[in-house]
Structure to design on (465 residues):
């Protein structure tokens, strides 16, 4: 049962008080450019409340991770690999030790041959009749920052039945520095079973096959559409309530502060390298943020936000428009791509999503964010109202009185904008550490500096809510 949590009352501030400042010309983001329609389901989309599995979830020890695990050694990787193998086997997910080296294979016949070999090993029931690699079609739909995504389709068998179209995801070379694949797979197994995410079909050494969803990826403007925003809120609640399946320890252990400190550690290492080898980049960074003082900012936010009553949920943590799909069959909304998902505060997931309203990853300068696009108070309250309605319709909370409803919406408003500060810090750190790890054509440092700049501009205002 999801409980109401009401902190001491405080009036909701008017829009004019809340409106974020404009983006400074000197402030100069993240996330992959959105991929068009990345997923097809043979079943209809689910609008109803999720029927959760009965067994409690027992996860790995991420919630207990501390500074000692910031840099994993080989034995840790071996342990994670063993855990992942056991997890997938337990959930009936076939596994292959093969890998796909995109740089070596290119995009012609060698890649088709390797993909078909892995497909027939993992999914022989539907793909074993395909013997000629030229018969499969690979449609690359994303060269994202942490993944490359393909749609894979094949010819019909003798009985006329075509193998189902699948989604192929090949992990980026630097991704595992920041993303624990065992955690991602753990949640994918659980969510696929209850219908709130594409089903995991098979896994190999550096990637996986997923259920393809016949859908359309949202655009930056879709996030601002009132009806779509309300649908996103309802879909987010279906994800959040998966926390009910966690064991007591997992359900009380948000990983936000651990992740912030881990990413600060990695970003600090990148800054040290910038200082040695890229003095111009280092000087640009120092104009906006001193990486050493960010540790104190994290400590301050933890002290001020840990006990404000934001419920702990299963959070997506990266609900940008490229990770939200509209199913073509029924128009329902589904959130995909769970690389960054975890047990976390509700306010963080809300605040992070609202920060994404400022992004345009298909512009000529995809790292630039326009924080004037951050949702107004009325837009936020509409989102929160839909979220609360989803809770009520699911029978997880009783219908509140008008005064209680107003208090609940006020609580969501305050917690969301306070935790948006954590989003700015986290993705600011992400930009810096990515700049030290990848050669992708994206201004990571410029993106990170924008997030840090906005953090410092709105910090006092949001903490004062």
């Amino acid at each position: 049962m999801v409980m109401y949590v009401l902190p001491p009352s405080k009036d909701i501030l008017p829009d004019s008080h809340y409106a974020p400042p404009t983006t400074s010309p000197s402030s100069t983001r993240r996330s992959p450019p959105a991929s068009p329609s990345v997923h097809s389901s043979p079943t209809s989309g689910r609008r109803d409340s999720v029927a959760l599995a009965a067994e409690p979830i027992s996860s790995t020890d991420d919630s207990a991770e501390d500074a000692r695990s910031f840099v994993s050694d080989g034995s840790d990787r071996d342990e994670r690999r063993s855990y992942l193998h056991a997890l997938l086997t337990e959930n009936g997910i076939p596994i292959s030790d093969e890998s796909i080296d995109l740089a070596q294979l290119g995009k012609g016949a060698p890649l088709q041959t390797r993909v078909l070999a892995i497909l027939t090993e993992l999914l022989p029931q539907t793909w074993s009749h395909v013997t000629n690699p030229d018969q499969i079609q690979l449609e690359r739909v994303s060269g994202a920052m942490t993944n490359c995504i393909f749609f894979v389709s094949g010819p019909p068998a003798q009985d006329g039945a075509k193998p189902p179209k699948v989604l192929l995801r090949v992990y980026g070379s630097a991704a595992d520095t920041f993303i624990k694949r065992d955690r991602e797979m753990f949640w994918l197994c659980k969510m696929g079973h209850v219908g709130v995410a594409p089903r995991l079909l098979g896994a190999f050494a550096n990637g996986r096959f997923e259920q393809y969803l016949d859908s359309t990826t949202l655009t930056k403007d879709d996030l601002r559409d009132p009806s779509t925003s309300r649908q996103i809120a309802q879909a987010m609640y279906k994800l959040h309530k998966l926390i009910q399946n966690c064991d007591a320890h997992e359900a009380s252990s948000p990983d936000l502060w651990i992740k912030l400190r881990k990413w600060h550690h990695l970003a600090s290492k990148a800054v040290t390298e910038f200082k040695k080898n890229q003095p111009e980049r280092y000087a640009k960074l120092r104009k906006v943020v001193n990486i050493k003082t960010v540790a104190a900012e994290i400590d301050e936010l933890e002290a001020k936000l840990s006990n404000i009553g934001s419920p702990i949920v299963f959070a997506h943590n990266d609900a940008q428009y490229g990770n939200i799909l509209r199913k073509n069959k029924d128009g329902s909304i589904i959130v995909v791509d769970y690389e960054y998902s975890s047990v976390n505060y509700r306010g963080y997931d809300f605040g992070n999503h609202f920060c994404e309203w400022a992004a345009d990853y298909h512009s000529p300068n995809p790292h630039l964010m326009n924080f004037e696009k951050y949702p107004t108070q009325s837009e936020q309250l509409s989102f929160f109202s839909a979220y609360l309605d989803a809770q009520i319709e699911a029978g997880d909370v009783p219908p509140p009185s008008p005064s209680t409803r107003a208090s609940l919406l006020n609580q969501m408003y305050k917690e969301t904008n306070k935790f948006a500060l954590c989003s700015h810090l986290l993705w600011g750190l992400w930009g810096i550490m990515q700049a030290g790890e990848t050669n992708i054509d994206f201004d990571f440092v410029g993106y990170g500096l924008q997030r840090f700049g906005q953090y410092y501009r709105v910090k006092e205002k949001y903490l004062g809510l």
Summary: Residues 74 and 293 are 31 Å apart (CA to CA).
